[in-house]
Write a structure and sequence with these properties.
168 residues, mainly beta, 2 domains, six-stranded antiparallel β-barrel, 2 helices
Length: 168
Amino acid sequence: MDRFVSLAHIVKTRGVKGELVAHLLTDFPKRFVSVRSVRILRGNQVFDEILEHYWFHRGRVILKFQGRETPEAAAPLAGGYVQVPEEERFVPPRNTFYHSDLIGCQVEEQGEILGMVTGIFETGGDQVSLVVTANGGKEVLIPLVKQFVKKVDIAGKTIRIKSLPGLF
């Protein structure tokens, strides 16, 4: 089964030319340079679209899809997510990870499995913590910083940490 990643969430139509306003969901806005064919997922409906052009305005992306020349023609896409196949997503910079890749990783310390990453908690700025559900069901926040996280192996779905005494 194909897996997709969302680049933007379409919130409304704009103007009279069939343009759409979308909130960016990617940390790589330049990603749109290489995007032509996309999938729009709106509820249980899927629309295969060709991106004609795009531009950025006030922290959002304005999208125009081929064949959607009026607000009425573009309106069915509002509320949908602009998606591309997972294999087409950008490779993140070194020591940077997609949240979706971290979720499901086993967390271990010195070979002992402590739990699994079940979520991501963003506290603002660059502060990100892993939400780890320990083997006993307790949720623990692990700051995603090198003092605690020693190695992330996305392919092996493991994260090696150095925890504080009593944390788990």
